[in-house]
Amino acid sequence: MTNMESVRKQFPILNQEVNGHPLVYLDSSATSQKPSSVIDAVSDYYKQYNSNVHRGVHTLGTYATEGYEGAREKVKDFINASSIKEVIFTRGTTTAINTVASSYGRDHLQSGDEIVLTKMEHHSNIIPWQQIAKATGAELKYIPLQEDGTILIEDVEKLVTERTKIVAMTHVSNVLGTINPIKEVAKIAHKQNAVIVVDGAQSVPHMRVDVQDLDADFYAFSAHKMCGPTGIGVLYGKKSLLEKMEPVEFGGEMIDFVNLHDSTWKELPWKFEGGTPIIAGAIGLGKAIDFLNEVGMDNVEAHESELVSYAMEQMNTIDGMTIYGPKKRAGLVTFNLDDVHPHDGATALDSLGIAVRAGHHCAQPLMRELQVAATARASFYLYNNKQDVDLLVDGLKKTKEYFGDVF
Ligand SMILES: Cc1ncc(COP(=O)(O)O)c(C=O)c1O
Question: Which domains, and CATH codes, for the chain?
């Protein structure tokens, strides 16, 4: 078993004080911190071999291309895609989902067709579908949530019909921590000849994901939530689907032949990567994958599972604490504490050096479902430890006392 304290030491940002207290970073669902190896890989690229990829015949260009394409190979292995043709670099999860909606959605949807989502989706997995539904005349249907923030497979079976062309679902909810049964949902979607688009922003960083085993048609995730840099993410898509899809961005890099009045595209995956790509980002993502592989995704998952159980147990001892979502969950806890507004609570915790997120977490429909305007969220990653949880719980008790006196 990896020593998680030695893992933590590899994140230089964690070794600092914020507002006079040691930093307790509990906002990894928003963005994760980066280990030195990733920071160094990005900096080495700029210091030693910064160059554009694919076109150059010179040495630096070759190194940069090797770094960029080598990262694609690492992504392929990490999620068990069957070919590098299925790994498209995007700006992140949002861009990946927009790419599927704008390309696959535009060409496969028409009036009378349905797109099935859940009520726990992040805005990034709602709005692209709303937009494409408006453009094509398709309709959105929502799988309801149970009291504990899970979905029922019977509801999926009822809602996914021969009218359904696309099922779009998060693998892990960024608010509830719910882990959705993607493999079963994929089977139901495929029975109706629909495709499943999975938002993997909160799953790929925290658990072993095998896109072939899940039988996902499309799978989207962001590097910055998995120890990698901002500005880069991945769209996985089955080759058979991507091959028939039109690019959504046109210009340099993605073309084969350009004539005055028409052009042809490169083969997969490059036809979806118009313009100079996110070279440093991909190299950083590749290093992040090396790092996560060294720790082992099973260790990451087990570590977070232990932390989140401990956190829920401790937080539940605080009077007036409401925790949202199911018992069996990914490594995050979304909560409200009595009448303390989550923004006030998060500000009070920040004064103690504890970073949590407050707000609607880009899931306004879900907030309405929970009948709250906002919540606070503590999210864990491989570098957090039990002491972080103890400091959070202690901070919450102090916050409650403070606001108890104020109100
Ligand atoms: C579940 C989920 N989907 C999508 C996103 C969007 O990711 P990005 O902003 O990296 O595109 C997030 C980010 O918070 C998320 O948690």
Answer: 4-28+297-406 (3.90.1150.10), 39-293 (3.40.640.10)
